[in-house]
């Protein structure tokens, strides 16, 4: 197997094919072999698993996944990488590469088509410029047992944040609504070529089997979360009144009280079941009118 993480191998390989890194495509390739190996091991990929990889690049993580998984489907937007991937991962019969933009794919349909009989997982060293839309698509697809990704460390901390902490955000609640996050390990900038300006981290999101929060309307729930974080450090009633203009200030205050919270409560301290109580109160008021 070609050791693609060895820069004495990688540099001539890239030069031979006239390949130049694209900043616009978020191309920071791994040059530390322990990283793709650890990601593949920690993601729990085994031969009964079908893995969707996003952005194989020249294939360091692809190799490690293909060594362990029943099937790997890798989606890469940059087809200049084709002749290089032919050399680095061409030997794997359980690998299929799709030359496409992952954001243009129907992920649930793809998973159904490619991974019949296997446990679906997603795994990637994500292009950082589209971390949020890709994670959103993967979680909303609701078809993966687990999603293991390398992202900027600050994004990983935001995904795993606890209510009331500085990192807690609407994106935290979105991710934790679908999955339980676990921070795995940090990856320093010197493990990549070219080096990014930030430290990275690997995080696993294990899809929740059940969501026992009795949310009456998912759309109202997510609007409540968004409105609650829109005015950080202000009373929740201000955010709710601007996110749900039909409530007005008095109505927003009544919702908060009816849901059992103090009038001074701030949105960024609320847990998912607490957001659910508020959102459900908004739904009930609508129904009562
Ligand atoms: N997996 C390789 C590694 O770890 O060395 C490359 C990771 S690099 C951070 C991100 C990869 O995602 C690049 O190969 C890039 O071309 C690819 N990429 C960027 N945008 C993409 C998109 N919208 N759809 C699919 N792949 C994309």
Structure description:
The strands form 2 sheets. The chain has a 7-stranded mixed beta sheet, sandwiched between helices. Strands 1-8 form a two-stranded antiparallel ribbon. The chain is built from 12 helices and 9 strands. Helix content is 41%, strand content 18%. The radius of gyration is 22 Å and the shape is elongated. The protein has 2 domains: 7-207, Rossmann fold (3-Layer(aba) Sandwich), CATH 3.40.50.150; 218-288, rRNA adenine dimethylase, C-terminal domain (Helicase, Ruva Protein, domain 3, Orthogonal Bundle), CATH 1.10.8.100. Helix 3 (60-68) links the parallel strand 2 (49-54) and strand 3 (71-76). With 289 residues, it is of the alpha/beta class. The model has no long low-confidence stretch (mean pLDDT 96). S-adenosylmethionine (SAM) binds at residues 25-30, 54-57, 60-61, 75-78, 101-103, 125, 127, 130. S-adenosylmethionine is lined by residues 25-30, 54-57, 60-61, 75-78, 101-103, 125, 127, 130.
Question: How do the helices and strands line up, and which of them pair or pack?
Answer:
Layout: H1 7-16, E1 29-30, H2 34-42, E2 49-54, H3 60-68, E3 71-76, H4 82-89, E4 95-99, H5 107-114, E5 119-125, H6 131-140, E6 146-152, H7 153-159, H8 170-178, E7 179-187, E8 192-193, E9 200-207, H9 218-230, H10 236-243, H11 248-258, H12 272-288
Parallel strand pairs: 2-3, 2-5, 3-4, 5-6
Antiparallel strand pairs: 1-8, 6-9, 7-9
The structure holds S-adenosylmethionine (SAM).
The site of S-adenosylmethionine has 22 residues, from strand 1, helix 3 and strand 3.
């Amino acid at each position: 197997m070609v050791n693609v993480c060895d820069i004495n191998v990688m540099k001539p390989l890239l030069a031979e094919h006239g390949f130049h890194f694209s900043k616009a495509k978020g191309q920071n390739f791994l040059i530390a072999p322990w990283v793709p190996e650890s990601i593949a091991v920690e993601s729990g990929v085994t031969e009964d698993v079908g893995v969707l990889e996003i952005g194989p690049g020249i294939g360091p993580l692809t190799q490690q996944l293909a060594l362990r998984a029943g099937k790997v489907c890798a989606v890469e937007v940059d087809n200049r990488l084709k002749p290089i991937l032919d050399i680095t991962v061409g030997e794997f019969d359980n690998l299929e590469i799709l030359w496409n933009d992952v954001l243009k794919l129907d992920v649930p349909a793809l998973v159904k088509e490619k991974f019949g009989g296997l446990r679906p997982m997603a795994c990637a060293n994500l292009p950082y410029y589209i971390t949020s839309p890709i994670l959103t698509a993967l979680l909303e697809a609701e078809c993966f047992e687990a999603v293991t990704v390398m992202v900027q460390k600050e994004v990983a901390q935001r995904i795993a944040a606890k209510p009331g902490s500085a990192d807690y955000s609407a994106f935290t609640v979105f991710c934790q609504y679908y999955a339980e996050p676990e921070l795995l390990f940090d990856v320093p900038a010197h493990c990549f070529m070219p080096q990014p300006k930030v430290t990275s981290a690997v995080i696993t999101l294990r899809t929740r089997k059940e969501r026992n929060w009795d949310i009456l309307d998912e759309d109202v729930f997510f609007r409540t979360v968004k409105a609650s974080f829109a005015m950080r450090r202000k009373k929740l009633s201000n955010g709710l009144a601007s996110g749900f203009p039909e409530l007005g200030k008095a109505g927003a205050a009544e919702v908060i009280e009816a849901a059992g919270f103090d009038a001074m409560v701030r949105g960024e301290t609320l847990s998912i079941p607490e957001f659910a109580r508020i959102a459900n109160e908004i739904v009930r008021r609508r129904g009562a009118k």
